[in-house]
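Entry 14. Ran structure prediction on the chain below.
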Amino acid sequence: MFVRRLNEAWRGPVLSADEMRELDRATIERGLVGAVLMERAAMACAERLFARFPQGARCVVLAGPGNNGGDGLALARLLDGCGWQVAVVLAADRERLTSDPRTNLDLLEANICVFGVEEADRLLGDCDVAVDSLLGIGATSAPRGRVAIALDALRKHRDDIAFVLAVDVCSGLSTDTGAGAAWCVAASETVTFAAPKWAHVLPGGLDVSGDVYVADIGIPAQGRAQMWSRADVKESLIGRSRAGYKNRFGHVLELCGSETMPGAAILAARGASRCGAGLVTIASDMAVRDVVVSAVPESMFVDAATLRAAIGSGAFTSFVAGCGLGRGADASRWLRVLLEEQQGRTAVLDADALHLLVEDDTLIRSSTGPLILTPHPGELAALLQVATADVSADPLASVRACAEKYSAVVLGKFAGAVIVSPDSAVRSVRGGVPALATAGSGDVLAGMIAALAAALSPLDAAATGAWLHVDAGRRAVPSSAPESMLAGEIADALPGVFAALRAS
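Output, structure tokens:
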């Protein structure tokens, strides 16, 4: 059985519930019967349990009414055959089970005790392993009835159970939005099938899913959304010729920084420089020139008041604007000049630039080149003029709506990133690096993406920048102290990231 951990090397699609159901249906129509798929799913789950408990364990399988429950019933039979002590709690009317789950129930009852949910509390209080196969990818609301009773019992004993395995998704977790974590019981591991689902990528599902493993059970993994991987990053990065020189590797102009926030310009410049930009020029208020240039001596500086002439020189290959820029009249005027002078070159808009777009909707119409917007949830809500809670309820739909509204590539900064292009292409970068939640982290990312945009398409630049950012954060985090991370350390970790990419 081919079971792989979902990590930065994973390459393939991220599936919605509808996409997974359609792939499942098409696979069965091609002749691979549902009972075989169920058996393979159970084998994949058993493989993970055997890896964790090679000597066996006491296991309670919580099985629901659908095919997810059928996977759990098949797993219980396999574990019993390998000498495990297994009990099954059936949170369903056996008479209403469909054919494949019912077949597995009939097969296991000769050897395994099957209990109702009224016994869940007692059984879970005396086990090493619990298997959550109550609800599958179709859950869209809070669990009810017998399933809710079984989940409540699991929640009560969770701290005393050594290992909880979720089959496909944690029960109650929305496959498409990651919503529902409040009533889910956190898994130690999740085994999902064919490809990861959005619930395993979006913020709501990250903490409760535990380590996610993807099993190839014979269903071809195909979908519109792609998880950006190490291999994708390696393919997108352009090596440097031994005869190359700085002007051949991109010249980023950043309209960033202000008297109260000069550090944002410094961090964006470090991100761009560490991500391969041959040259970086900072355009800002003259009041910050000395502090910025002394902090980033590798960069150049121009007075933002002369921005039109500077851009008109044609020296720049990409732009980044907004990091610490401020939201006053000067900032708005300078941003308009940059957008009017893009002339086909990509501009990354972050932080204050996003707020300026909201305050003056004529700014977006000034753009003369591709845009990459990099909002966090609050900024995304402002761009869409909705509540932040609405964005959190459906992150993917929110990023899609923003990409359509602004005709831009939009990188939604969650725990990881969701990137959508104006033509609805979707990329995902799985995160889960708490240390990245530090002041200035987004400034570094914006500079990185601007450097990459000199050579890559806006969509690939955003996805590659987000992947590099996450990997740098993972490498830079002080061991056991993510709260001690500084944004500049993310930029300084990039040489190690690139070295590891070349070595892999």
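The first strand starts at residue 2 and ends at 5. Will compare against last week's run tomorrow.
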